Amino acid sequence: xxxxxxxxxxxxxxxxxxxxxxxxxxxxxxxxxxxxxxxxxxxxxxxxxxxxxxxxxxxxxxxxxxxxxxxxxxxxxxxxxxxxxxxxxxxxxxxxxxxxxxxxxxxxxxxxxxxxxxxxxxxxxxxxxxxxxxxxxxxxxxxxxxxxxxxxxxxxxxxxxxxxxxxxxxxxxxxxxxxxxxxxxxxxxxxxxxxxxxxxxxxxxxxxxxxxxxxxxxxxxxxxxxxxxxxxxxxxxxxxxxxxxxxxxxxxxxxxxxxxxxxxxxxxxxxxxxxxxxxxxxxxxxxxxxxxxxxxxxxxxxxxxxxxxxxxxxxxxxxxxxxxxxxxxxxxxxxxxxxxxxxxxxxxxxxxxxxxxxxxxxxxxxxxxxxxxxxxxxxxxxxxxxxxxxxxxxxxxxxxxxxxxxxxxxxxxxxxxxxxxxxxxxxxxxxxxxxxxxxxx
Length: 441
Known about the structure:
Number of helices: 22
Number of strands: 7
Order of helices and strands: HHHHHHHHHHEHHEHHEHHEHEHHEHEHH
Low-confidence stretches: none
Helix content: 40-55%
Strand content: 5-15%
Distance between the termini: 58 Å
């Protein structure tokens, strides 16, 4: 039996409609098998707190082996996994096609799904992962401003900590009543000659995402301006639901399926009309590029979207390789530190953001490939906020030593998490914003 594998990892489909998927006894058997392998390897100890939690349980047991850990303590490991998938993609030597067939993230997802089905996931966690509800309330005129003010008041934050499990020290995103969809409602895509480049066809439909629509509409607008400056017409989808990633991380697979039934037909319609799909949040691209295809391996529409959705900088690199990228930049950016989001890394597209920013004259891009520890809800919940900060600390320390002009991350939540620990010279923390500035737009 091989000790490890040098082959590229492959991923098995998620058999989530099989009744055995929710069989707790069989789940615990699989968790014990996988935990035993992880205990013997310990290669992933630096990724997140799931592994230190597991290894501490083993080391503090009577046998110093997994058989000395009580099954009820397995859930402590589950609570620390935030589904970044980095262990599978970058660390584990025992993933398929290795015969041990180890998929730690999918076993954690299965455990969360069992918890959700049993009603054991906290109500507060269900609420803070409900981006649709948050967006509907947070984008109301007057209400958005009131929420933004209230979120900065210590007394209100203490109440939120007790009622919604939101740590009073956590940085909460702002809400905008003038959402991206409202701002771009009457804008027609620019007229341009369509030219194919690689797998791109030259015009893009923007999946706005909950976060870009309500919390960071400027990023969506920056994407539109950069793309159209490069002769790529951009439109928004006519309708969309949440991509489903926040609900996937809670094990709420039925809601993920509900969102799919709205999103996939709309995206397929646009693809059939010749549009490529882009989204400015890496987690949302990953959801359509990896998670949904693994949940629906035999759905041709889901697989079609997988082939036609792009990270924005992945898209621009295709254009650049074909000689179609506008490289007439007006502003030097200086020294840029770029934190690579986990959900972008596991797409296996390479450092495309760095490649494009490095084209700007007078610009040096230093890359940090380490987790920010945020992961949406993990970085704001009481009980995990402090661990989230601990995970972010090495990134913050490295960024401080680099003394850069800008700190950016394609994930706005990761960028905020890191920027809060830095004394930045410039406020811009998204690479699309920097590219827009470099063009002088």
